[in-house]
Design goal:
Elements (H helix, E strand, L loop, with lengths): L1 E6 L1 H7 L8 E7 L9 E3 L6 H6 L14 E7 L7 H7 L5 E8 L7 H19 L5 E6 H7 L8 H20 L5 E3 L9 E8 L4 E4 L8 E9 H6 L3 H10 L8 E9 L4 E8 L8 H6 L1
Parallel strand pairs: 1-2, 1-4, 2-3, 4-5, 5-6, 6-8, 10-11
Antiparallel strand pairs: 7-11, 8-9, 8-12, 10-12
């Protein structure tokens, strides 16, 4: 079982989607909680970052049943993300994976921009040092570009559903034997990650964050059971496409194929050891 923690209202909305799956143990931490329970904890809301830093709660009792493997969701630029450093400090003995949801930073100014820059950078540095197992980045802007049919009324729910689906399937693949293929275990130093949804016709990547300097790319392809049975030469066709992907001694590719009763779908997970920098307007213009 995996413990899933959402820090803040937006992150908790993502974690809510894991509640109905028995393999997950969910913890919601936000200012909307009416009272503390076994799996919910009220975080105070303040007017300044300094007050958040002084108000880190003692969570020893709340986390007493936390599993050894923990996945923590944090939404960048939110004031509640300031709590994340103090909360993560209290569960550092666990195997912690961080999922960071990055806002559209071009329109951020003032304190939210400072909060985003600080939390985004510090969590990456801690992950690269080995304090956390992985740091996976999702970009709201990139998800909106990939899911271009999002309507305004269901905007955040669609973003949250996309993130939930990606993370859940990543967990599923880890514990499921593929029909064929083998995902190479990423090098221990490559702890920073991004996820792509695959267009299965040509195995094209639709990245939910544009990762700089990917070192290892793992392709997870789910093929309909009828197609697996009836289509001749399918394995060679898929492998030949993967062989056209850019790869060298510093950019490795591995893959696994799974059977599904659904229509074909897939993901690619990119791993790197490079800290992802903020893309300011000046940097974008230079590119």
């Amino acid at each position: 079982m995996i413990s899933i923690i959402g820090i803040g209202n937006a992150a908790s909305a993502i974690v809510e989607k894991f509640k109905e799956i028995p393999q997950y143990d969910t913890y919601l931490m936000n200012s909307s909680v009416e009272k503390n329970t076994k799996n919910t904890f009220k975080l105070n809301a303040h007017d300044s970052p300094e007050l958040y830093e002084r108000d880190i709660p003692n969570l020893k009792s709340f986390f007493k049943n936390l599993k050894d493997r923990v996945q923590v969701f944090v939404v960048g630029s939110s004031y509640s993300s300031i709590y994340s450093l103090g909360i993560l400090q209290q569960i550092r003995s666990k195997e912690v994976e961080i999922f960071y949801i990055k806002p559209d930073t071009e329109l951020l100014t003032g304190i939210p921009q400072l909060v985003e820059n600080t939390v985004y950078g510090v969590l990456q540095e801690y992950t690269r040092s080995g304090l956390f197992k992985t740091f996976t980045i999702f970009s709201n802007e990139s998800i909106e570009r990939v899911r271009d049919n999002i309507n305004l009324k269901n905007y955040y729910d669609t973003l949250n559903e996309t993130i939930f689906s990606c993370v859940h399937y990543m967990n599923y693949f880890e514990h499921t034997e593929p029909h064929i293929g083998n995902i190479s275990k990423p090098n221990e130093v490559n702890r920073i990650r991004a996820v792509s949804m695959l267009d299965m016709k040509k195995i094209n990547e639709n990245w939910l964050f544009d990762l700089d300097t990917p070192r290892e790319l793992c392709y997870y392809m789910c093929i309909n059971e009828k197609r697996l049975e009836e289509e001749r030469g399918l394995h060679k066709k898929l492998v030949d496409i993967l062989k056209t992907k850019p790869r060298n001694a510093f950019r490795k590719i591995s893959y696994a194929i799974y059977e599904t009763h659904l229509q074909d779908f897939g993901f690619c997970v990119a791993h790197t050891n490079a800290i992802q920098q903020q893309k300011t307007l000046d940097k974008l213009e230079q590119e």
